[in-house]
Amino acid sequence: MRIFSGIQPTGAKHFGNYSGGFRQYAATQDLGDAFFCIVDLHSITTPQDPEALREATLDLAAILLATGLDPERSTIFVQSHVSEHAECAWLLGCIATFGELRRMTQFKDKSQGKDSVSAGLFTYPALMAADILLYQTDKVPIGDDQRQHLELTRNLAERFNSRYGETFKLPEAIYPEVGARVMDLQEPDRKMSTTGGTPQGTVGLLDPPDTLRRKVRSAVTDSGKEVRRSEDKPGITNLIDMMAVATGSTPEEIEARYDGTGYGKFKEDVAEAVVALLDPIRLRYGELRANQPVLRAILAEGAAKAELIAAETLDVAYERVGFVAP
Ligand code: TYM
């Protein structure tokens, strides 16, 4: 079984990334042959400071290790190190239609209100499809916000296969049962996000304990006192889900445990659970990040392994579309 997922190096990583991304990567690396890609090509769809991007790429490598990826079991690599990603994105960009790319909600959200939007932001989903399809991927661990992109990936694979003959495997997503969409603590009807959320409502993976406590304690909750999930109480529902993610309990167990305790005590406990989860990650991250040669060696080895598979798929795809072999 092949596992593939990608994550952008830019933007401070947060509890939502942990829930939909990191913890699922660590769990799925045991299901089979796993590839985890730091998608730097995706990051430049919006303007980036070059030096900050370079740092962020190594930061993310260290976070992937600190949250449990084992380079002995998983292939961890940087997207720009494997040039097949950009090449395959071109093929899939010629399969995707203007109409379907225009319907992508992430594109709509990120381009809304902007004077100028890059063509790369628009064609971004074709690159994401290339990432996944190059590895003949079976399972893609992601959060709910990537659902539409995954569906598009399947559609592009199907269209390519029916036009040119069987080339790409159709991948399936793996979403977490709880915490597939972690919400902003200050505006709980928006997803937690470094680009679209509030700074106070975004729980940073590397925030120090005091910052974590302050953010969780000041989370906006609804009027009422009952620690119970419901659609019209997004604030408390989100905190229950976060507690479940942080502790491994089910939301039902948490509701039962806090029956009748009120929001104040509950928030204190959520804050402590988040600190207990993230503080060891922050400390491990610090140690790993300090050793750049090791990080670079892991990424170099990862890219070499990834390229073997990616090149094999791209060769077949080029042959199918009718390119003359060099
Ligand atoms: P990115 O970098 O924005 O996010 C990385 C992962 O974190 C998940 N995530 C969340 N999960 C739950 N709640 C949230 N609030 C939340 N915010 C983010 C995302 O769903 C994702 O799993 N386009 C992708 C990167 C990508 C990719 C790929 C993913 C490029 N190629 C191939 C999978 C396969 C993105 O921008 O994720």
Which key phrases capture this entry?
single chain, 326 residues, mainly alpha, Rossmann fold, Tyrosyl-Transfer RNA Synthetase, 2 domains, 3-stranded parallel beta sheet, two-stranded parallel ribbon, 55% helix, globular, binds tryptophanyl-5'AMP
Low confidence ranges: none
What proportion strand? 5-15%
Instruction: Give, in spatial order, the strands making up the sheet with the most strands.
Output: 1-2-3
Can you name the CATH architecture of the largest domain? 3-Layer(aba) Sandwich
Q: What is the string of SSEs from the N terminus onward?
A: EHEHHEHHHHEHEHHHHH
State the end-to-end CA separation.
32 Å
Named once each, the bound ligands are:
tryptophanyl-5'AMP
Give the helix proportion (percent range): 40-55%
Total number of helices: 13
* Rounded Rg: 20 Å
In CATH, the homologous superfamily of the largest domain goes by the name: HUPs
Number of domains: 2
What does this structure look like?
The chain is mainly alpha-helical. Helix 1 links the parallel strand 1 and strand 2. It binds tryptophanyl-5'AMP. Tryptophanyl-5'AMP (TYM) binds next to strand 1, helix 1 and helix 7.
Short description:
By secondary structure, this protein is mainly α. Helix content is 55%, strand content 7%.
Layout of helices and strands:
Blueprint lengths: L1 E6 L7 H14 L4 E6 L1 H4 L6 H17 L7 E5 L5 H10 L4 H5 L2 H7 L7 H15 L5 E3 L5 H18 L7 E3 L34 H9 L16 H14 L3 H7 L5 H28 L1 H30 L5
Parallel strand pairs: 1-2, 2-3, 4-5
Helix pairs in contact: 3-12, 4-7, 4-13, 7-8, 9-12, 10-12
The structure holds tryptophanyl-5'AMP.
